[in-house]
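Researcher: I need the complex structure. Ligand is guanosine-5'-triphosphate. Inputs:
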Amino acid sequence: MPARRPVVIIPTYNEADNIGKLIEEVLRALGNGRVLIVDDNSPDGTSDIVGKIAEKNPDVLLAKRPGKLGLGTAYIHGFKKALALPDVDCVIGMDADFSHSPQYLPDFVKALDEFDVVVGSRYLNGISVVNWPIRRLFISFFANNYARFITGLPVRDCTSGFCCYKREVLERINLDAVRARGYSFLVEMKYRAHELGFRIGEIPIIFFERRSGQTKMSKLDILEAIFTVWRLRLGFYKK
Ligand SMILES: Nc1nc2c(ncn2[C@@H]2O[C@H](COP(=O)(O)OP(=O)(O)OP(=O)(O)O)[C@@H](O)[C@H]2O)c(=O)[nH]1
Ligand SMILES: [Mg+2]
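Model: Output:
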């Protein structure tokens, strides 16, 4: 089988301190990969940095949006762009803040021999999170278990944003119908893939606290997440 050529989508909002180094590490880790940054007009000039790298390297692509429109819609925008590129057979999503280490990228691609969706899981072998304050860990652990319990998703880390999808998964999911605009989009995507009968597998990752910059999660994101899991469970979504 020819080597898979992944596209790594990285949504960014104010990640100027991280993004240049991250792009370099992602390309090095994969060898044959491409990177698509979806930036929401970050005031810190993230897109200028990416734009300069993209000018010199055709494997780096930049999609700019006019303002901060949410993580979920950034991914949908990125998925559509990625699917329009030549010979893309898988798409990987990851955060820009080095919480998701590029060293795991080849493991995701390898796991596609067995699965259609591969999730980088913090909760496979106990809890593998480094440098998080205990309060943060508690909230994340609770949120994940809440989402798992309500939706019934057979995925230990269903809120993980480190996630790889085979092309056909993104083609089958009705991307225009995905409702969650913020972080709960990550649960909705896994739910939809599961409902369509795709095989979801998990690989263990160690999750690191963001290296630099600030969190973007808002109270509205949390509220949306609470409702999203019930909306999915009760079937209030367009297929
Ligand atoms: N394009 C875009 N990217 C976003 C948006 N919100 C968050 N991101 C990016 O999504 C990724 C995850 O966001 P984070 O702020 O790291 O969220 P988190 O991991 O829950 O929180 P911390 O790591 O504690 O900051 C990062 O790469 C962000 O830059 C958004 O509205 N638009
Ligand atoms: Mg983060």
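Model: Summary of the prediction. The chain has one domain: 6-233.
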